[in-house]
């Protein structure tokens, strides 16, 4: 029997799943100042990420993009850790804030995405906005077909609108779209919205202290070792 | 003196400028039926394109995408020319209508875009919607970095919002964005909105009867022979 293609589009969480934010942010912090431990600062800055989106998700705050939230979180983290922002050149602070646009890909990301692109529409499904994701793709050579940022859907995951509006813009029913992520909560929300799901572990995302998301904890459609393995597994579902 | 990069993003009109709609539509019509002249039908179908967007531009009609407008225009053209739609399989009619998603690139498009992609953000700035432009890119191997369809800007060119909202989503000032088109009216509107402009002639777009847009008629920033030549000319403005 001829296998059917499981989905038409394979979309990806980006921060942590496709790119190594901890390495990229640590490096940018180290280049900015030697006043703090770069890795610790990166973890602390990222630690404010989910809470900062909560008021947007709940509707208390109008949608603002990640450049705004990252900047607020940068200032709070700097104040808490003693990173000197006020005495720095404003353009250097802006450059540091935009380090989230310049993150390195995990080693398997580009080869895996390149293979997937042969058979599927590929793109990010990220809380990043369109310009950030475009700059990230240029920087890390991510071969996306299409980029629909959170400033287009006006929703932050795991808000169901983030998943559903993306599928709608692709004119695909949710079940023809797969989300691939290293985060079980993201996949749970995508599955609840009707998307297909794939988990890949990124056990080094947070460093040695990582306890969450070391393995799949839900009934995901695919569990893969990395993006290259995901491409191999999905190939079995592609008509030859 | 070190040359500066003229712009950050080089965006393209698609129908006629990047892809040969007359060839693609003629072929799809020929495959659908032998009741009409395929080339004449393609010209007549396309002839209803600009008028059909006018009520959306003026605000009389809420935004509807090109699948909707192409379908209405297909039915009107079929009625006027004797193409039998009612007796055809509905899925064949839908396939014909979506021939606008499957148009062939002009021979210079992919090599020229591939070269431009090395130095600039490249994407369409088209009246097509995101799904149509994504499918077109997959079909014709157009290596866009980002696709912002008219369903995202909710505006049809030459409405200034089409140009300005695209630049805004890229977080670029209009003068850092270039529109490349084979149509002088499109470039005039882009220039009026503050974008940079490049003209490339597509004298075969409408076939032997073409009288418009055989040459540049405005003060465009660049006039190129084709997209490969555009890449060559813009390379002179790129820091090496």
Automatic annotation (TrEMBL), chains A, B:
The keyword Hydrolase applies. The keyword Coiled coil does not apply. Keywords: Hydrolase. One of its GO terms (molecular function) is hydrolase activity, acting on acid halide bonds, in C-halide compounds. It holds the Pfam family Hydrolase. InterPro entries: 2-HAD, HAD-like_sf, HAD-SF_hydro_IA, HAD_sf, PGP-like_dom2, S-2-haloacid_dehalogenase. Belongs to the HAD-like hydrolase superfamily. S-2-haloalkanoic acid dehalogenase family. This is Haloacid dehalogenase type II. It comes from Saccharopolyspora aridisoli.
